[in-house]
Amino acid sequence: MKNNEPEYVKLIEYVRSGLVEQVHFGLIIHLNKKNIIKKIGRDNNYKFYHRSCMKPMQASVLIDLGADKKYGFTEEEIALCCASHTGDKIHQKYIKSILAKTGFNENDLLCAPHEPLSRKECDYLILNGLMPQKIHNNCSGKHGAMLTVCKEKGYSPKNYKDINHPLSDFIINHVCNLCEVSRNDIIISKDGCGLPVIATTLEQLGKGFLNLFTNTKYQKITNAFLNNPLLIGGEGRLDTQIIQNSKNIVAKAGACGLCVIVNLIKEEAIVIKIADSNMEARAFTAFEALKQEKWTEENSVRINNINRGEIRTLDYDLIGDINSCFSLL
Questions:
Q1: Three-state DSSP class for 87?
Q2: 308 falls in which pLDDT band (50, 70, 90)?
Q3: What percent of the chain has pLDDT over 90?
Q4: CA 101: distance to chain centroid?
Q5: Maximum C-alpha span of the chain
Q6: Using an 8 Å Cβ cutoff, are 296 and 285 in contact?
Q7: In this predicted structure, what is the pLDDT of residue 4?
Q8: What is the pLDDT of residue 24?
Q9: Cα dist. 114→26, 54, 133, 157, 159 in Å?
Q10: Least enclosed by CB within 10 Å: which of 40, 68, 177, 226?
């Protein structure tokens, strides 16, 4: 193992009839603005791409520029700018509204069309002989936000997702400031939607979220998360479920096993990284972390229903358990 590679630990195990048959490893960091409260595993300052966890930090430039007020963006539209959405009709409604308010149209979006994550919307397209469009892309809201920034900064909307476009420098510098990291100490690549994405340590990612969601300047973004969880993700999505079943908690999931959760009252964050990117393991780990920290104590029954930790057959015979192997206490 190289010196800077993360040392993952076992977080979750699946036990079927007494036999451990599946395990998932990862890292958890619990922190506030000043300190690491606890680490599960050793990240060794390894850098991870933020993936979709970067979206609310990217969208926060809309507040800095006053674009949210200039174009009359609602909380729902701000939520869509931060979203990794499922492409349902409600998500399409708000990306269309963002584009209309800023004088753009769907053709200006540079995200590729892809099949919506919503099963309902997929079925609708198939039954009506329709093809997926750019607005179905789970990053279309972020792209709408980036077009808005281009308009406000006087940047050309052409090729705005290119790494050499001035938008890239503007956004990356802003996110670095939130994460308290030097521009020289990050790694830059392209996210799945084609826009630049940065890699920092998990601690720096957590600080970025704390500096965003505990700053009253960005209260509109915080409210957008709290009041519109279905727009942030969609039916059955992890961040949506966390916000729906918690109080004063915001969350954003990202590809490759990432999830960042912020307790707005305590001003603390939990950053989760699942090594093999398994989405079920990420969800179980997130809800287990919330329960251990008692951040969802008032809704513990609902959380337990979502995160039962049971392994059942298709005819619902209980044959095993999903167990956590970590303690944040």
A1: coil
A2: confident
A3: 93
A4: 25
A5: 63
A6: no
A7: 87
A8: 98
A9: 29, 21, 7, 21, 19
A10: 177
